[in-house]
Amino acid sequence: MTKSVSAVGFDFEQKQTDLIEKKLNRVGYAEDLIVDLILRVKRDKAYYFDCTVNFRWGSQAHVTSDDFDFAAGLNKMMDVLDNKIKKEKDKIQEKK
User: Fold this and answer.
1) Fewer beta carbons below 10 Å: N end or C end of the chain?
2) How do residues 45-69 score in pLDDT, each as one tens digit?
3) Is the pTM of the predicted complex or chain greater than 0.85?
4) Residue 80 belongs to what H/E stretch?
């Protein structure tokens, strides 16, 4: 799985980078199913998280969230992303 994390309009602080790495480890169980994970974080008045996951079998999951607090917005996005990955994984296992 290739991870691409970028900040738009600002630079990550070290603790934000560490938090992102820690949270992305939550989907480590699906590492062999995911080709790449692209996360963009934009800061305007709030933080906007935009994540796209491309799976081996060609499908794609797109998740967004926003919050004034960096950690809260990241948690919201990761909860939704985790659920989407589990659903996609279950769909593929049903077809086998």
Assistant:
1) C
2) 999 999 999 999 899 999 999 999 9
3) yes
4) helix 70-95
